[in-house]
Q: What sequence folds into this?
């Protein structure tokens, strides 16, 4: 399975979490994602996701003037988006715990190698 | 697209191709504009910061287009409206010369009407397939030529079959009569005026 496939579904929650920290515009949002380690992610991928989240009323947007070029569209979280983020965090914690239980830890693998 | 933004030729070409691809994938025009505007501003800022377009849309622009298309809902209702307008428009262009030739005594066989509609639908379908195919970067010129040639041959064959059937099969004739022809003419004129006003908006 490719990283892109694994990221599907997770990236929505990450976008909501970044937007919750303060309103951001598209380019800034992509830069922040990259800063968190999502560097193999094509930046343009966020726009259809943001559009869908706007339609689902999870985020709202406002156009603001920029000194560096065209008007920027800033995204902020709606109350519905806050609830969705909370749900995502719960789901993610459960998923993470379960996956970690299934996968052998690094020390287990090293221990097996030593025994062989 | 925002004409004030100075983008590289590669980025401009990509945005134009993406717009065509999404429109021919029956996506809502509002959604298409929203995506294109967001991406255009992003590319503008990325180019100012020295980022290559591949960083924004990935190494395969075709895959990116498919991904965007997959995320957007299909607007069949709206596109059905456009297709009806195109079919109705093409029928009106068929009817006006016939009124001039036949006078106020318009008549068509049912097969003739059906074949005109089938040919119009096929033309729209083929045009959409070809335009969508050419919008995806990476498709070879040979592939485009083969597709165009194949569709032209198929379209011609079906058109000839329709013309042959019309000439050789007896099908019920609809006579519009004087009043019917006048009503058809008036409806067509109102439709065409409405279409011109709508298109100019």
A:
């Amino acid at each position: 399975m490719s990283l892109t496939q694994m990221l599907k579904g997770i990236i929505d929650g990450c976008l909501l979490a970044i937007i919750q920290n303060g309103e951001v515009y598209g380019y800034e949002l992509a830069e922040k994602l990259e800063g968190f380690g999502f560097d193999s992610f094509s930046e343009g991928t966020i726009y259809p996701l943001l559009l869908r989240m706007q339609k689902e009323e999870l985020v709202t947007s406002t156009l603001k003037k920029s000194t560096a070029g065209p008007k920027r569209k800033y995204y902020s979280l709606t109350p519905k988006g806050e609830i969705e983020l909370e749900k995502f965090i719960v789901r993610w914690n459960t998923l993470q715990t379960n996956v970690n239980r299934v996968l052998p830890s690094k020390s287990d693998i090293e221990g097996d190698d030593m025994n062989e | 697209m925002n004409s004030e933004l100075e983008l590289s030729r590669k980025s401009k070409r990509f945005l134009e191709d993406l717009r065509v691809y999404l429109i021919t994938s029956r996506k809502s025009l509002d959604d298409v504009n929203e995506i294109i505007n967001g991406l255009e501003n992003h590319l503008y800022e990325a180019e100012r910061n020295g980022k290559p377009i591949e960083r924004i849309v990935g190494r395969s622009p075709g895959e990116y287009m498919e991904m965007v298309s997959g995320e957007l809902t299909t607007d069949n209702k709206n596109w059905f409206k456009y297709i009806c307008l195109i079919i109705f428009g093409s029928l009106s262009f068929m009817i006006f010369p016939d009124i001039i030739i036949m006078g106020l005594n318009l008549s068509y066989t049912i097969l003739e009407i059906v074949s005109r509609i089938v040919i119009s639908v096929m033309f729209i379908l083929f045009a959409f397939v070809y335009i969508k195919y050419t919008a995806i970067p990476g498709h070879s010129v040979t592939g485009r030529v083969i597709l165009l040639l194949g569709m032209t041959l198929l379209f011609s064959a079906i058109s000839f079959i329709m013309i042959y059937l019309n000439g050789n099969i007896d099908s019920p004739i609809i006579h519009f009569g004087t009043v019917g022809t006048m009503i058809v003419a008036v409806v067509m004129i109102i439709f065409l005026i409405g279409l011109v006003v709508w298109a100019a908006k």
